[in-house]
Amino acid sequence: MATANRNKENQDGEKSKRISLEQLREVRSMLSFIRPYRWYFFGGLVLLFLGSLTFMVFPYLAGELADVATGNSKLGLDLNQIGLILIVILLLQGIMSFLRVIWFAVVSEKGMADVRSSIYQRLIGLPVYFFEKNRVGDLTSRISEDVNRLSSVFSNTLAELIRQLLILITGIAFLLVTTPRLSLTMLATFPVIVVGAMFFGRFVRRLSKSRQKSLANTNTVVEETLQNINTVKAFTNESLEYNRYKSEMGKVVDTSLKLAKYRAAFASFIIVVLFGVIFFILWYGATMVQNDMMTIGQLVSFISYTAIIGAAIGSLGNFYTEIVTALGGTERIREILHEQTELKVPQVVNRPKVEGHIHFSDVHFEYPSRPDMSVLKGIDLDIHPGQKIALVGQSGSGKSTIVSLLMRLYPWQKGSITLDGNNISTLDLASYRSVYAVVPQEVLLFGGTIRENILYGHPEATEEELMDAARSSNSLEFIQSFPDGFDTIVGERGIKLSGGQRQRIAIARAVLRNPDILILDEATSSLDAESEKVVQEALERLLEGRTAIIIAHRLATIRNVDCIYVLEEGRIVEKGTHDELIDKEDGIYGALAKLQFDI
Length: 599
Prior knowledge:
Blueprint: H1 2-21, H2 23-31, H3 38-55, H4 57-70, H5 79-124, H6 128-133, H7 136-178, H8 180-187, H9 190-227, H10 229-234, H11 238-290, H12 296-337, E1 358-366, E2 374-383, E3 388-393, H13 399-406, E4 414-419, E5 422-423, H14 429-433, E6 436-439, H15 450-455, H16 463-472, H17 476-480, H18 499-513, E7 517-521, H19 529-543, E8 547-551, E9 563-568, E10 571-576, H20 578-582, H21 588-597
Parallel strand pairs: 3-8, 3-9, 6-7, 7-8
Antiparallel strand pairs: 1-2, 1-4, 4-5, 9-10
Helix pairs in contact: 2-12, 3-5, 3-7, 4-12, 5-7, 7-8, 7-9, 7-12, 9-11, 9-12, 11-12, 16-18, 18-19
């Protein structure tokens, strides 16, 4: 166990080192999202530069005011003239600050909208097995919390960091020219501060990433609980879920407090070093004035510049921390953006003309998440155009897996699957899937209206086509019984509708799609007898003239199909019509039929 932990720590250390070396590349990859708005960004930088230079005139004029008051002015200006210059500079500062904030906001808001769009586009283009390995709450956190941190960097932190750097450089340059001896004393503290910042940043980066991950876990708990709220309440597990959430939040708090300790330690370090140096410089400068080595105005200017430079150095630590924290979030964003998608979104889907001849030849399959467990072991299927076949077998025998492979939700390891003689793995995925429609056992509707859910099968359908689909699916009557008709809100996952109503909405959606090949995945197994009869009538109309694959537990629904395939442990062990299989001695199908039909 200890060895494993050491190995993990070594891997983490290597990863941290690698990330540090790739930091500039990460920044550049994120900057690509603001490239379309680069002129706003460059304009903001120009205003930032001009504003910083203008700001640095204030300490000089403050010293000049002191020299005018003591009669040592070198510019030959009076107090009113200096006051007028200060007012003009303030107005310029206000105008430049206003435009700068607006332009950086354009870059941030539009750039981050592009980031979110790119993440979402990538997410919906990823294969199903990606979502089996990643929890929804964690993915949601990446597109919300992590992008928010990045947005904060582009809208404020990056600009302030550049501003403070400009102030720092300008102030040091001015002091080296006017008061070199005092300036060198101040600059002697820089190496200590820089080394401290580098040491501190390494810990902050690791902890900030850990905090983001813990925060994502809390989102996952909330999402899972709310999605399964009926189950939670049925088992009275509110306390269990509350304790899960509280435990995850405890981890967030622990990591945040640890991060706060490092930030507090660094802030204390900066304060002690900076203020110690400032008080020493005040004493040393006062001594120089006393010995006529500089004027009161020069000392005032130097103290003002030193205070501004000190504030800039102090703020650099916080800005550095925020940027490092955001970079920790960009790693999680980039993980999604670098995932290999199964199709490009958005794209124009050209639905091909197909006959519907499906052929499986010696297909073997193991799930990517369980490569040691074989699910399908040499499946051979031949489904002719317009033929209706059924897949029967115990749970886990491979029925749904066959359909998943046909839909290309997973890659198979051996064998071939063809549609009309074409290997389906070579066909354009979006066009290929457009010929199918699926009516699942558990229908999860979108939370909008009935109209939106039916139109999901064909968004460009006319009102007449919508009505026909509802009528064909035996849905029109119950839809029109609602006060809002097709504009009735179905609620989260369709919770406001009964199981039979949801099933008929799913059938209407399939009717509107007008598929060449229909897949029914135990479409009536969860319904009562009355609802099943209504749904079965709608299904029979939908099946007419189409190639169909039916997964069924209730054998009464597949008596009239052209061929029944019986699966056991990933193999087809029997095939034939209902009458052929029921007469087979010691057959699996016959045994199932005896149980259901009481033969």
